[in-house]
Amino acid sequence: MARYTEQELRYLRLLDELQDTDGVDVRYEERGEIEEATGEAPEAFALMEEWQGVRLAPQLQRAFLRFDGISAHWTLTEDGAALGGEFSLRHLPAALFATGETLVHDDLPSDVRALYEEFRVFDEQPRTGAGTLAALRIPTVVTGTLSPEIWYYDSSDGAFRLDVDYAQYLDALLVTKGTFGWQYLYADVNLGESGLGSVADDLRTMLDVFPRLFPGHDYADLRTRLEART
User: Fold this and answer.
1) Which sequence spans correspond to the domains of the chain?
2) How many Å apart are CA 140 and CA 35, to the nearest integer?
3) Where would you tag: which of 54, 138, 143, 182 has the fewest CB atoms within 10 A of its CB?
4) Which pLDDT belongs to residue 124?
């Protein structure tokens, strides 16, 4: 049996938090097998450079996960609060093969088409059909060491660059539990605009109930980000 890294244990604890918390209904959970063939982070990063010609920044190795899939879909069932979330992560070597080609269609402007073609998807919400995903942006031509831009795509609103790197995204996911729309807290948006008001309401609910349900996390930064966007 594979020995989990500390990073992998953090995500198993996340699933435990959801399962063990009264008032949270876990509709789906996946605790995938460890893909030992990829090796530890240094070996996996070397393989990605060999396969794809992408030399990822060494500081991203701390976030490396080897699960062939780890995911959850949950809803909040207490206090009459309507809130839900989902995440479905694939490890980095698999993400480099998960292109954004399915987002491309003939009506897109050429610059948007080019952007989507550079997406490599690592987080999705497939069970709720929300039409959202998070992706690394891998340029067509890569020179030197790369810490990829992180983009969030919503089929209703398009794509937004997030002001986090891959490791920071995964850190934030541990706190937000994949609450729908949490990524907007890291985007340059006004959540008071038409179409995003319900997202702001959900994030307010998250920040109202999560400190009580999951008291072991710090929500100060998320509160500051929400205030700055509403």
Assistant:
1) 6-228
2) 27
3) 143
4) 95
